[in-house]
Amino acid sequence: MSTWSYKAAPELSDEQYARWQSLLEERTGICFMQHKSILQKGLRQRMSEVGAEDYEQYFQQVSAIPDGVVEWAQLVDKISVKETSFFRDNYACDVVRDFLLERVADNAESDTYPLDIWSVGCSTGEEAYSLAMLASEVIDYLAVKSFLGVMATDISQTALTLARRGIYSGRKIESLPLAIKNKYFTKNNQGDFEITPALRQRIYFVQGNMLEIEQAPKLAMDVIYCQNVLVYFRRERQWQVLNALTEHLKPGGMLMIGPGEVVGWQHSQMQRSGDEQVQAYVKRGLTN
């Protein structure tokens, strides 16, 4: 019989919730004002793991600089939403595919056109690998030489570790077309499915905080895919992030966000693209 026991933390009071929410938003931009249960569940899980029973004591622990940095990262891993799937928004993926077909075809005369894509908030990797598959299919269809690079960022180190492994259950890929499964996955001895090395080497996973995009190196992207991330941000934060992402697009590049995820955003360099089923923007200017 265990010689110790853990007493579950009580419900967050309104004052405690406001304090934790303020710290979370200040450091990550994430706002759970309408999703208190997500924050409380993550706090309880992590406090249980480290044996903390008091919200105040744990707050002091994670907010301390630099001593609390590691524990803060562990807490963010618990709180961050990791729900994702391959080709989660099929219609948006079709729009990106058609965009890439036109963009690569327009640059077919180039010896090796560099095709650069950014998956923002990539979670456990399904989105990033989906984008890499889309682009690879376009390159193969057009029979052109093109260097493909996909940058995938997320705030959660745990999610990134899983993404880098590139191993998924049969359930995760059951809805994919057979041709895609056969081309981009191999079944391992445990019965799971691994992303092929050829596709995996086209993607680099990097930890990134959405609030620090303005300080990120000015890499020029053909497509920036940022879906189901900004929904947890306040409107002013959303606009700030989108303005920063715009600076990372090549002229003629596409920014894809979740339909209805951001309201009222406008930018002098961006024009709306596609129909009402997607929220896509293309950067004004030359396409090369």
From TrEMBL:
Tell me, which GO biological process terms does this entry list?
A: methylation
Which Gene3D superfamilies would you find in this protein's record? Chemotaxis receptor methyltransferase CheR, N-terminal domain (1.10.155.10), Vaccinia Virus protein VP39 (3.40.50.150)
Superkingdom of source? Bacteria
Q: SMART domains, from UniProt?
A: MeTrc (SM00138)
Asked if the Swiss-Prot or TrEMBL record annotates the protein with the keyword S-adenosyl-L-methionine, the reply is: yes
Q: Which residues form the CheR-type methyltransferase domain?
A: 5-263
Cite the EC number: 2.1.1.80
- Record's InterPro entries? Bact_Chemotaxis_MeTrfase, CheR_C, CheR_MeTrfase, CheR_N, CheR_N_sf, SAM-dependent_MTases_sf
Q: Under what name is this protein listed? A: protein-glutamate O-methyltransferase
Q: Which reaction does it catalyse?
A: L-glutamyl-[protein] + S-adenosyl-L-methionine = [protein]-L-glutamate 5-O-methyl ester + S-adenosyl-L-homocysteine
